[in-house]
Structures are given as C-alpha cells and as structure tokens.
Amino acid sequence: RSNDLRPRGWTSADAAGLPVLPGLLRYDEVASGEITHALRFTVPQTRKAYVWPARHYASSLTDAKYPPMGQRFRLRASFDFSGFSPHTQVILRALKKYGMILADNGSAWYISGAPDSRWNNDVLVSELRLVKGSDFEAIDESPLMVSPDSGQVRTGITLAPPQNLRIFR
C-alpha cells in the first residue's frame, strides 16, 4: 500500500488522474450516518491546469474563471440543510466537512456514486438539485500536502479559501 500519486501528466479512469473509488458516494456510508471523505464531482468545463492532488488536466481553456482539475469545493458553513431528508443531510454534512474534488469534465456539479439498488434516486436528485454552485466555496488544500507526489495528508489542518494556489500546467 502506498500514498504515491500517479506521475504528473498521467490520467486515470478520470481526467484528473485521481483514483475513482475513494471519492465515490456509497450507500452504506450514507446509511451509517457518516461519510468520512471528500466526494468526487464533475463540471462541464475546466481550466488547462491542475492542483494537488490531481495529476492531469483535460481542457484547452486558460481563463481563470474555469476551475482546475483537483480543485476542492466545500459547502458553505451557513448552508441550512435542516429541511432535507436524512440521507441527503448525511451527504451535505460531508460536503461541509470534507468537500468535493473536481475529478473530470461532465455534467454540472455531478457527484459520482457507487450503484446500489437501495438508493432513492428520485429524492436524492430532487434534493441535491436545490444545492447550487454558489452554495460552495473553493478551498486551498495545499496545506494538507506532505509532498506534491504523494496523496499523504497532514491532519489537524483547517482549510481556507485559496490565496495563491500552486497550479500546474
């Protein structure tokens, strides 16, 4: 077992070069009442850049209005999810604590989940649609980085919105 990341510039099953499984939303976690990791998600357009822990980009766009692969977004602390179903509240709580990491180009703000017949997709989709991109803030996760080539993270770090992200092109 290793914390080594793929070599810079390498892709994987997703465009960011990240492993897919650790970022998936899984039914058993939601049913247990706690998700203890960031989730992976997609957006339609990204920048020709990536930030740790991503290893690759998948765009020719250079405008800074587009996020780089690997960018972490966190649900704002002020977001009130008290009116949501219990399962959706578990997901939203994780998005406040751990956030989500941009892993690929795809549907807008699409969180990837492991298939499971126990999901109530109608409720999840209708409730998660109520959460907008503006309900999130970009987070600088570079203080977590032990080494640019390792997925190992420092613990006990408080993440904040980015000041000067280390962007790779």
Task: Lay out the secondary structure.
Layout: H1 27-32, E1 39-43, E2 72-75, H2 86-97, E3 100-105, E4 110-111, H3 121-128, E5 136-139
Parallel strand pairs: 1-3
Antiparallel strand pairs: 1-4, 2-3, 2-5
Describe this structure in words.
This protein is an alpha+beta fold and 169 residues long. It has three helices and five strands; from the N terminus they run αββαββαβ.
Beta-strand portion reads 5-15%
The total count of strands amounts to: 5
Provide a count of the helices: 3
Domain tally: 1
In summary, what is this structure?
By secondary structure, the protein is α+β, with helices and mostly antiparallel strands. The protein has three helices and five strands.
Question: What structural keywords apply?
Answer:
alpha+beta; 5 strands; single chain; 5-stranded mixed beta sheet; globular; 3 helices; 169 residues
